[in-house]
Amino acid sequence: QVQLVESGGGLVQPGGSLRLSCAASGLTFSRYSMSWYRQAPGKERELVTAITSTGSTNYADSVKGRFTISRDNLKKTVTLQMNSLKPGDTAVYFCRADPSWVGGKSYWGQGTQVTVSS
Questions:
Q1: Start-to-end Cα distance in the chain
Q2: Predicted pLDDT of residue 33
Q3: Do 49 and 60 meet the contact criterion of CB atoms below 8 Å apart?
Q4: How far is CA 57 from the centre of its chain?
Q5: What tens digit of pLDDT does each residue of 39-94 get?
Q6: What average pLDDT does range 14-41 have in this prediction?
Q7: Which one of 50, 71, 76, 93 is CB 3.0 to 4.6 Å from 29, fit for a cystine?
């Protein structure tokens, strides 16, 4: 059974930092691209950042220079370091795993709330 479990969300003031983690189990982690999505109230879920199985990364323009994604294949975790947080970053953040081969199944975590407010 595949599980993706996010942690690290919470309430932070504007300009602050948070570190989100996603722990994976039940899959061959190194063969999956991992990504973070977020969904704010009343808005569609959007891609924030992704890291491929080989370590290539990409970021949404809105978070470039502030967020950093990394992965540890031995620990089967993907981490999102978020700095210089803004109120517009407030959302539920979801972890997603996408297989590196055609036809495989993707998986979502349950999400973790990030609230940026003074």
A1: 40
A2: 98
A3: yes
A4: 12
A5: 999 999 999 999 999 999 999 999 999 999 999 999 999 999 999 999 999 999 99
A6: 97
A7: 76
Q: Mean pLDDT throughout 24-47?
A: 97
* Measured distance CA(99)–CA(70) in Å, rounded: 17
How many Cβ atoms are within 10 Å of 30's Cβ, its own excluded?
12
Query: One-letter amino acid identity for 25?
Result: S
| Residues 17 and 82: beta-carbon distance below 8 Å | yes
SS (H, E, C) 36-105: EEEECCCCCCEEEEEECCCCCEEECCCCCCCEEEEEECCCCEEEEEECCCCHHHCEEEEEEEEECCCCCC
- DSSP 3-state of 28: coil
Burial of 5 (0-12, 13-18, 19+ CB in 10 A): middle
Residue 42 has a pLDDT of: 94
